[in-house]
Amino acid sequence: MGSGENVELDLNVLDQCHRYILNNCDEVHRFRRQHEEFLKMKHRRERLTMRQIQELSKKEFPEWFKQHMNSRCHPNDTLISQDLRWLANYPSKVVSRYKSHIVHVFRFRIKSKDDKHKNQNCGIFVPANVLGAIGQVNCYGRVVDMFEVKYCGHAEPGDRGRAMMLFKCEWVNSESPRGMKTYYGELQSIRI
Predict the structure, then answer these.
(1) 10 Å Cβ neighbour count for 113?
(2) The pLDDT of residue 189 is above 60
(3) What integer best gives the mean pLDDT of the chain?
(4) Which of 45, 48, 102, 180 is most buried, judged by most C-beta within 10 A?
(5) DSSP one-letter code for 9
């Protein structure tokens, strides 16, 4: 809601956002598997465990994906969607920061803005799969920041790019005494 404020994200935060988006995009999943197979072949003499391959993939996948999409895939290849071509490129460092946003008729506000209102709209609840837990764990949190990450690339006439709306949240796992954790998460994918 509103025009938003253009801000430049720290490279570490932007990198975390980009990795999150790539890791949670179903269309990218097959390329992640290809990259893991590539790493298995590349490091076959070292006999890395699957966990080591996955950790290596987390670090190297974004750059591999960009090179793979930009150099090996023909621009007229109909098997590769335009969205994937945009996602392969690193997002812009300049993002639009918002204080409130509506997602599927629900209004969310950042915590600092919410403190000034009687009705609280910064709280969120997400059932999540957590390592080591049996079944889903109920996670509660509050939105502390929200911004739109924009992807730029080769555009067709009339195409202004792609963007993802991300919420930065402080999460509380009600079933663990560990306390609060800050995490970036996508609530809605939008096209600009």
Answers:
(1) 14
(2) no
(3) 77
(4) 48
(5) P
Instruction: Look up the domain containing 84 and give its range.
Output: 5-190
Measure the CA–CA gap between 23 and 41, rounded to whole angstroms.
22
Rounded Cα–Cα distance for residues 124 and 143 (Å): 7
What would the pLDDT profile of 86-112 be if each residue is shown by its tens digit? 888 888 888 888 887 777 777 777 776
Per DSSP, helices labelled H in 125-177 are: none
Amino acid of residue 179 = G
Amino acid identity, position 103: V
Mapped to the 3 state alphabet, what secondary structure does 22-47 carry? HHCCHHHHHHHHHHHHHHHHHCHHHC
45-56: pLDDT as tens digits: 888 888 888 888
Token pair in block for residue 176: 């663990």
Residue 105, phi-psi category: left (phi > 0), alpha (psi -120 to 50), beta (remainder) = left
